[in-house]
Amino acid sequence: SFPLVQIRDLSVTYNTRLGPTSAVDKISFDIRRGEIMGLVGESGCGKSTLGKALLRMIMPPGYISGGQIIFNGENVMKFDEKRLRDYRGRQVSMIFQDPMTSLNPVQTVEQHLEEAIQVHEAETKTPYIIKRIQTLIERLGIMQSRLDSYPHQLSGGMRQRVMVGLGLVLNAGLIIADEATTSLDVIVEAKLVDQLREIRDEFGVSILAITHNIALVAEIADRVAVMYAGNLVELGDVNRIFDAPLHPYTQGLLASVPTTEINAKKELYKMPGEPPNLARPPSGCRFHPRCPAAMPICSRYRPALEEVAPGHWVHCWLYQDHPEKVEKTIKVA
Ligand code: SF4
Ligand code: MG
After folding, report:
1. Nearest ligand, CA of residue 49?
2. CB-ligand 1 contact for 301 (6 Å cutoff)
3. 295 lines ligand 1 (CB under 6 A)
4. Residue of minimum CA distance from atom 3 in ligand 1
5. Is the CB of 291 inside a 6 Å radius of any atom of ligand 1?
6. Ligand 1 test: best mutation among 271, 283, 285, 315, most atoms within 8 Å of CB?
7. Greatest C-alpha distance within the chain
8. Beta carbon of 294 within 6 Å of any ligand 1 atom
9. Is the shortest distance between the CB of 303 and ligand 1 below 6 Å?
């Protein structure tokens, strides 16, 4: 069957004092049914903006400046307000770093769950839904005794589980988790990661896990999309990306974290330079000022996102034929 989400040439622009700033620049990828897609990159690379764009929740002075989002075969860009509310409320569920802001402080866990159901009366109070809530509460490790608790009485990890539960009660097809585990301690984080995987297995939901933490992606994701300065630079199966990253940025990112087995014994790599100001992005490949493999063509033309092996996409001149690249290779030789 076709993918749950098809993102095509999606661009988001912010009007700033320095002029239009392209925070997300012509990004294309799919989120398949029942997969966990990791979206990774440094802070400010546009990954959260992309997550919000999927819900059409970009606020002025930002706007979606191009491209398409197809959800379950429907064009999200064409949704009217009513359809959009349903899409945001029921079909896609978003979990942020601090769920306190999304939970109602004066409602108990049980009231949250009940309310979520009432909003969608059509499907309510059927034995199926009741069974679903019970299964969820068990699966998520929310104790029966916690149902009467208010959000502030719960731990951060428990609040995240309630948020996940709310999404699943509504039968969401997609959960977008934006740095959802970042404020949790390591053990609670590991537990939530396990639970997200179990939930995916059990309910067949798709999860877009947005994070700066590449080690976390290795644990949770089936596929990985790497973003740099508003661009998608590499996309592929998690094992492939971790075993044989092709894009110089991905290579640098992996070499700079101590948690992958590959470089456990090696000295950590320090990526030179800083991410660019997106109001004045570097010409051509946006990574060229920091790239150890940059060639003359890199600052002049933007590479395409090319499929270099089945399912493995890379946005880099190293893997594309271009007359200037050939010329340079000849000169060097
Ligand atoms: Fe480096 Fe050039 Fe590839 Fe960009 S296109 S990542 S500058 S080699
Ligand atoms: Mg963010």
Report:
1. 2
2. no
3. yes
4. 316
5. yes
6. 285
7. 73
8. yes
9. yes
What are 145's two structure tokens? 């005794």
Q: What is the pLDDT of residues 160-191, one digit of tens each?
A: 778 777 777 777 799 898 877 766 677 777 77
The model's pLDDT over 16-65, given as tens digits with 9 standing for 90+, comes to 998 999 999 999 999 999 999 999 998 889 999 999 999 999 999 999 99
d(Cα 227, Cα 236) in Å, to the nearest integer? 12
**33 φ, ψ (degrees, to nearest 5):** -65, 130
Question: Does ligand 1 have an atom closer than 6 angstroms to the CB of 318?
Answer: yes
Q: Is the pTM of the predicted complex or chain greater than 0.90?
A: no
Phi, psi of 256 (to 5 degrees): -100, 0
Distance CA 217, CA 223 (A): 9
For residue 95, give Cα distances in angstroms to 162, 174, 197, 289, 319: 10, 11, 15, 34, 36
- Strand locations in the chain (E): 5-16, 19-31, 36-40, 62-71, 74-75, 92-95, 174-178, 206-211, 223-228, 231-237, 305-309, 312-315
Give the separation between CA 16 and CA 53, rounded to whole angstroms: 18
Burial class (CB in 10 A: 0-12, 13-18, 19+), 189: buried
Residue 100, pLDDT score? 62
- State residue 329's pLDDT score: 46
- Ligand 1 atom nearest the C-alpha of 291 is 1
Decide: 46 in ligand 1 pocket, CB within 6 A.
no
Cβ–ligand 1 contact at 228 (below 6 Å): no
Please state the rounded mean pLDDT for residues 138-150.
79
* Ligand 1 nearest-atom number relative to CA 319: 3
Q: What ipTM was predicted for this assembly?
A: 0.95
Q: Distance, CA 305 to ligand 1 centroid (Å)? A: 12
Are the C-beta atoms of 173 and 205 separated by less than 8 Å? yes
Domains, the chain, with CATH or none: 5-309+320-332 (3.40.50.300)
pLDDT digits (tens, 9 = 90+) for 55-91: 999 999 999 999 999 999 999 999 999 999 889 877 8
Ligand closest to 51 (CA) is 2
